[in-house]
Amino acid sequence: MSSLVISASCFVAMAIYGVAMHALWLWGGALDGLARPALAGCCGAVGFALVHRVSRRRAPVLGPAAPRSLQIAFALLALAVFVPLFWGCVELPAREWDGYAMWELRARQLAGAGGLTRPFFVEAGVYAPSRGYPLLQPLLVADASRLVGYPASRVLYLFFFALHLCCVHALLATRLSRGGALLGSIFVMLTPAWIGPGSASVDSGYGELLLSTAILGICAGFPVRDERDPPALSWLAAACFVVLPMIKPEGSVYGVLALLVGLRSISARPFVAFALALSLGSVLASTLGARLLFVEAAWTDRGLSLGLDLLPLVLLLVRLALGSFAARPPAWIWLGAIPLVRLAFLALEPQGLGGPLAVVFDGGLARAYARLADLPGLVAGIVGVFLNLRSFALLWPLLACVLVFQRWRVSVADRKLLLFVAAGLAACTVALLMVPEADLEHELRSRYGRLVLHWCGPAWIVVLGACVTAPGSAQVRRGLA
Amino acid sequence: MKGLLPALRERAVLALLVASALYAFARVPHATWRKRLAQVEEQRRLGSLGYNIGRSWPEIAEIVRWIRAHTDDDAILLWSGHWKGPLELVAASIGERLLYEEALAPADLVLRGELRGRAIARGTRGGARGVLVLLADGERIELVVRS
Questions:
Q1: Rounded CA gap, A336 and A279, in Å?
Q2: Which residue in B has a C-alpha nearest to residue A467's C-alpha?
Q3: 45-64 in B: which are within 8 Å (CB) of A?
Q4: What letter would DSSP give residue B122?
Q5: Which residues of B touch A474 (CB under 8 A)?
Q6: Taking phi first (over 0 means left), then psi (-120 to 50 degrees means alpha), and beta for anything else, what does residue A237 get?
Q7: B116, A119 Cβ separation under 8 angstroms
Q8: What is the ipTM of this complex?
């Protein structure tokens, strides 16, 4: 089974399960005992069956297997990295702040009987930090807890890391030889921030790893230009568009950026599927988030929330206006009405805002303007984050080097990927300027570094792809292709 | 000269690639293994509470220990003040107990000592007996008794 089929199957399963559970929660239902892990298992089986079926129709074309020596090196390195991470998962229950106080607290609450109907979630007076935050990761950890207990359930983070590497391999395999893809996976596996002991590392309990993996999955949508691409690529991307908003609030923003970047390059049918998928995930996650917040939102806030939910639909209409379908639009295009259902929700419910993004937007422009007064210090701080070897090794200087030396001659698909990375990093930087926290130095050190980490996987793919596809890079090409 | 530049550039990219991989690999024994094992050791020594709260706020860890020892496992503990700061860690350290904002708790239910079917935490501290309330200001936390 190829890495593409494994990645697509896992994310399709996650998307089906996420949609099913969000729908159940919004309806007010709960699954106790082993019913929820059983449902997750069923979704897993359906995901694997669906992807296996579509990928049999047109399997990805793979070259000869990677050299045995490289396979052995990968296995040994994986052992050297996964063993301490396993140790960290089972011996260190969530040691960093957000992992301990937010992500795993919610996972432990969801693991208990009643799940989302427990007082922790439904009582407005109960202290629950980050109340409106998306719940997919805590849900998955909670399900694992119901099976094997806590903290053993934290081993799930190793599965996320394996899935991350699987996605990297799947994307690189469409550009390089299998040996090159395996080598690229080693580069990503050794990313210091993932395997180090700090916040956002694999075993820290943070949501960064799963979000970053979903971003990689979305990148599979960029080469989708015609009918010759393996359908599993589109399935992987579509599933990731669904789950992105269910993992972290910035997922919705990243999804919209991906649609914007692919507005002209992704062919019409996959684009429709991606926009509807993002719309579905965004509406479900933000509606649930609004319900958990218990805050009576002003109409301006509701407008912001609705605007984010409607953006995929607007982009879909733009895409349809730009390009024509060979045949008539598919019948399921009417699923575009999903955000309109959200509109009805907003009209009916006093709660409105899709949660934590409001913290950034509320008065954010004024804060950003004030912070620009110290532009040199700000730029120095941001550059310092990108040059932080202990987090990213030499990835970002390498990307700059590749782009400058090779005069931006990356392949068309990778150019889109690069644009996506640039847009994502720009969004993260703008968010940094807009956050209400007073201590910007602390924000740079802790939060901004984590946001930049989201984009490491795609950046490695651009770097390695550019090394091979750019003209005049024979030496590097010989090593990877 | 024309042919030399691209070759130099290729070598520079290749050198950076190799340097990045070597640096990341060289960090594995120290950052991935040694530091993590040290964290495991420290957490075993201090316990989860001591590790997550006690290292920075020993007095707050002491309060949490007292709450664990002197209140019901599923009690509701009232709190008041600023939500950010160490209170976030306290909420994750008190097991099945829940923190409830004092201002949102109906006064008659507080008087009755029960909220949503759970007992509101009461206790004796410093000679005073009554409802326990955590006061948080974003930096420090105090446990007071309201009679």
A1: 8
A2: B13
A3: 48, 51-52
A4: E
A5: 10
A6: alpha
A7: yes
A8: 0.90
In tens, the pLDDT along B114-130 reads 888 899 999 898 888 89
Tokens describing residue A166: 């699987």
Q: State the Rg of chain A over Cα.
A: 22
Measured between CB atoms, does B82 come within 8 Å of chain A? no
For A122-131, write each residue's pLDDT tens digit.
888 899 988 8
Q: What is the DSSP string of A126-158?
A: B--TTTTS--HHHHHHHHHHHHH-TTGGGGHHH
pLDDT at A223: 64
d(CA A415, CA A408): 8
What one-letter code names the amino acid at A250? E
B144 part of contact set with chain A, CB < 8 Å: no
By three-state DSSP, how is residue B34 classified? helix
pTM listed for this prediction: 0.90
A79 half-sphere exposure, CB direction, 13 A CA radius: 6
Contacts of B31 in chain A (CB under 8 A): 192, 195-197, 390
**CB atoms inside a 10 Å sphere around CB B81:** 18
| CA B24/CA A392 separation, integer angstroms | 8
CA–CA separation, A27 and A10 (whole Å): 26
Look at residue A311 in the predicted model and tell me its pLDDT: 79
B98–A119 C-beta distance less than 8 A = yes
Q: Residues of A with CB below 8 A from B5's CB?
A: none
Q: How far apart are CA A55 and CA A233, in angstroms?
A: 9
Give ∠ CA A386-A392-A398 in degrees, rounded to 5: 70
Going by C-alpha positions, the residue among B92, B140, B98, B144 that lies closest to residue B122 is B144
Q: Which of B11, B28, B116 sits opposite A123 (nearest CB)?
A: B116
Distance from CA of B95 to the nearest CA of A (A): 9
Do A394 and B11 count as a contact with CB atoms less than 8 A apart? no
For A172-221, the pLDDT digits (tens) are: 988 888 888 999 999 999 999 999 998 899 999 999 999 999 999 999 88
Q: Considering only CB atoms, which chain A residues are within 8 Å of B17? A: 187, 398, 463, 467, 476
A383 touches chain B (CB under 8 A): no
The type of residue at B95 is G
- Report yes or no: A341 at the B interface, CB cutoff 8 Å: no
> What is the mean predicted confidence (pLDDT) over A450-460?
95
Task: Establish if A29 touches chain B: CB-CB under 8 angstroms.
Answer: no
DSSP string, B66-112: HHHHHS-TT-EEEEEE--SSTHHHHHTTSTT-EEEEGGGS-HHHHHH
* Residues counted in chain B: 147
Which pLDDT band, with edges at 50, 70 and 90, does A470 fall under? very low
- Residue A224 pLDDT: 57
Q: Which backbone phi and psi does A113 adopt, to 5 degrees?
A: -60, 140
- Average pLDDT rounded to a whole number, residues B38-42: 91
Write the single-letter amino acid at A6.
I
